[in-house]
Amino acid sequence: MKARLIHFLKLIDEDGRIEERKIWEVPKDRRCPEGIRYRLAYVFPGRKEPAVLYDNHHPKGHHKHISGRQSAYEFSTVENLLKDFRQDIEALK
């Protein structure tokens, strides 16, 4: 099985803020035991670096960046991932 995109959304609001979410189903292995890969980003206008970024690339595993600070993220489900991401965005607004 190859990676299969299971969720994609890209929104640009009236102020130019970008929210982009990509979630893939991938084969389960030691690098990705849940079988899920993701990159969720929220970017303010005129900025290159996201204000909020959730991802789980190897070798870091599940983590998030909020205003440039990186911390571990405890992944449980895709639904909770999306909820937590939205909460962090709302906290910045």
Keywords for this entry:
93 residues, alpha+beta
Helices and strands, with pairings:
Elements: E1 4-12, E2 18-25, E3 36-43, E4 52-55, E5 63-66, E6 69-72, H1 78-92
Antiparallel strand pairs: 1-2, 2-3, 3-4, 4-5, 5-6
Polypeptide structure, described:
The protein is an alpha+beta fold and 93 residues long. Helix content is 16%, strand content 40%. It is globular. The chain has a six-stranded antiparallel sheet, with helices on one face. The chain is built from one helix and six strands, in the order ββββββα. The protein has one helix at residues 78-92, and strands at 4-12, 18-25, 36-43, 52-55, 63-66, 69-72. The mean pLDDT is 95. Strand 1 and strand 2 (18-25) form a beta hairpin.
Which strands sit side by side, in order, in the main sheet? 1-2-3-4-5-6
Helix content: 10-25%
* Approximate strand percentage: 35-45%
Which series of helices and strands comes N to C?
Answer: EEEEEEH
Biggest sheet layout: 6 strands, antiparallel
Termini distance? 39 Å
Structural class: alpha+beta
Mean pLDDT: 95
Oligomer: single chain
- The shape, in one word, is globular
Stretches where pLDDT is under 50 for at least 5 consecutive residues are none
User: What's the helix count?
Assistant: 1
Radius of gyration: 13 Å
